[in-house]
């Protein structure tokens, strides 16, 4: 690549230093014949890297088929290339501290980078490339801009102009500000860090194209990076209409994609960024949807071509259509909410000694609880939390609730019941969804409880003023493995209470902004121990989230009271 201005070219000594352990692992992954045990040993030397690798490997966005609990297992299942890519992503993320550039919010840069990364990952299938390789290329490709700001912090004030420009215009601005461009710096950085050539080329040649002798796969990766750059700009640049048109043209030229397919991929970008950010340990703000982007682009076009009166008329038409769609969607969601409520225990046939409460973060919930009699003195009960939120989680919740009530009428052993439900869910689960669940039977005459857990949070056994015991999960969630075994715990309530809950309670924010978490939960349960059983769930949740019911996640609480 030609240097923009030779006398201002960035020197390797100007570049930030990579995390040594992570780069050592990246370089080891690229060596022919490297042993997975040696790689596992390298990762295990750094506890922070170990924790990050296991967290990302088990995340919903990068999750594997089965849960990974050890470094050696992660290295074996991931393979050298995927491990290399994960380590590269972490290296880039950690190369510059959050305060490395005075006055600059580095999180806004990584939010843009994540848009490029998820865009590139979506294009992998069209390009016949590895999705995680494309994700890594997308995340790394504009890192040179962050380095330019690091070297020239006095130019941070121009960030908004850089971010609001299209990819081509942004390079012109970079030349004016820095006398260099991010792709030049990216290639220098890649060579300095001894990164793999395909990723180095994606960083250095996603604007002008790679040298003629470049192999076809690396050339295709550069094209993916080019398209991902424009797809991300749709959500950030000022002239979104131009960006959308350019995306459609590029995807048609390089992948024979129709405008409808291009718009579908752009829609998926906004829906994937938050999930990818959670997996990568990054913070992002609320994402603008593609429909909002289209409206913004169309309004700009209308302002340029229509008279004020005609624009007003068309806007009224659009708003009316939006309201009709919104009303129809609200009706559908209300029907779904009513169906979900019908799956919860009927307040009119309430049983003594047991109560529960479910609060939804959205219109429909992925949590549920249930209980019913299975004999003169015995009750079966359960509480569960489906992974994810929204309609997908609600549908899986409905299926799991139905299986519990249907199969539980004939199977009174909680462990065996969970095993049968697990097999049913495993056979039909999609997109790696799973269910954490507690199921049990309580003898109200003797106070004996038989309890089994499928990857759920520990059940809490409280006395009148103190914690008696906690019963953590000894088996994975439902839907992970068809052959899982779910051991039973048997204990006496001893006149105390058993509390079952979902993570929406632990993660609820208190008035000071902190989360409740485990110690806070025990404190709240002690404070409300004297309240009547039927009133206690609402009193506990009100003390945690307040009466406005502003929730980040579904919240469900069940209480089983022992005989005095």
From TrEMBL:
Xref: InterPro entries: HDOD, PPM-type-like_dom_sf, PPM-type_phosphatase-like_dom, RNase_Y/CdgJ
Presence of the UniProt keyword Signal in the record: no
Gene3D superfamilies, alphabetized: Hypothetical protein af1432 (1.10.3210.10), PPM-type phosphatase domain (3.60.40.10)
Keyword vocabulary terms for this entry: Coiled coil
Domain HDOD: residue ranges: 15-209
Pfam families per UniProt: HDOD (PF08668), SpoIIE (PF07228)
PROSITE patterns linked to this entry: HDOD
Domain of life: Bacteria
Coiled coil: 308-335
Protein name according to UniProt: Serine phosphatase RsbU (Regulator of sigma subunit)
Phylogenetic lineage: Bacteria, Pseudomonadati, Pseudomonadota, Gammaproteobacteria, Chromatiales
């Amino acid at each position: 690549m030609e240097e923009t201005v030779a006398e201002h070219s960035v020197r390797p000594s100007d570049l930030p230093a990579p995390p040594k352990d992570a780069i050592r692992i990246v370089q080891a992954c690229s060596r022919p014949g490297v042993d997975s045990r040696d790689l596992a040993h390298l990762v295990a030397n750094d506890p922070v890297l170990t924790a990050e690798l296991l967290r990302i490997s088990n995340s919903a966005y990068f999750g594997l088929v089965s849960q990974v609990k050890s470094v050696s297992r992660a290295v074996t299942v991931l393979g050298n290339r995927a491990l290399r890519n994960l380590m590269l992503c972490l290296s880039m993320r950690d190369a510059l501290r959050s305060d490395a550039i005075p006055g600059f919010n580095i999180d806004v840069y990584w939010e843009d980078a994540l848009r490029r990364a998820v865009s590139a990952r979506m294009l992998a299938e069209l390009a016949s490339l590895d999705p995680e390789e494309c994700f890594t290329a997308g995340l790394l490709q504009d890192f040179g801009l962050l380095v330019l700001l690091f070297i020239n912090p006095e130019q941070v004030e121009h960030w908004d102009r850089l971010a609001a420009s299209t990819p081509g215009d942004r390079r012109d601005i970079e030349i004016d500000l820095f006398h260099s461009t991010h792709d030049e710096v990216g290639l220098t950085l890649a060579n300095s860090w001894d990164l793999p050539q395909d990723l180095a080329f994606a960083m250095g040649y996603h604007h002008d194209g790679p040298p003629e002798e470049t192999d076809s796969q690396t050339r295709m990766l550069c094209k993916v990076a080019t398209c991902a750059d424009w797809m991300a700009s749709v959500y950030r640049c000022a002239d979104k209409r131009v960006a959308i048109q350019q995306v459609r043209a590029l995807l048609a030229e390089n992948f024979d994609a129709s405008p409808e397919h291009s718009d579908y991929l752009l829609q998926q970008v906004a829906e994937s960024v938050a999930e990818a950010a959670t997996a990568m340990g990054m913070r992002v703000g609320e994402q603008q949807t593609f429909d909002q982007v289209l409206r913004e682009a169309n309004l700009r076009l209308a302002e340029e071509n229509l008279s004020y009166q005609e624009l007003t008329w068309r806007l009224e038409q659009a708003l009316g259509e939006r309201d009709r769609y919104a009303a129809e969607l609200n009706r559908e969601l209300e029907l779904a909410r009513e169906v979900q409520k019908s799956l919860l225990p009927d307040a009119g046939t309430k049983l003594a000694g047991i109560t529960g409460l479910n609060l939804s973060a959205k219109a429909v919930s992925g949590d549920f609880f249930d209980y019913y009699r299975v004999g003169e003195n015995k009750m079966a009960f359960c509480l569960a939390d489906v992974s994810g939120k929204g309609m997908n989680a609600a549908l899986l919740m409905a299926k799991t609730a139905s299986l519990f009530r249907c199969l539980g009428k004939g199977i009174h052993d909680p462990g065996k019941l969970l095993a049968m439900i697990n097999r049913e869910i495993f056979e039909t689960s999609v997109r790696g969804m799973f269910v954490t669940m507690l199921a049990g039977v309580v003898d109200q005459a003797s106070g004996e409880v038989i309890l089994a857990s499928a990857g759920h949070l520990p059940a809490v056994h409280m006395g009148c003023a103190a914690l008696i015991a906690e019963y953590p999960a000894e088996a994975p969630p439902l839907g992970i493995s068809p052959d899982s075994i779910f051991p039973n715990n048997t204990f006496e309530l001893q006149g105390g209470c058993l509390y079952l809950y979902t993570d929406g309670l632990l993660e609820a924010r208190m008035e000071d902004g902190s989360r409740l978490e485990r110690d806070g939960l025990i404190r709240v349960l002690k404070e409300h121990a004297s309240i009547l059983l039927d009133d206690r769930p609402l009193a506990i949740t009100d003390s945690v989230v307040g009466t406005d019911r502003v929730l980040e996640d579904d919240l469900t609480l069940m209480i089983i009271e022992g005989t005095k």
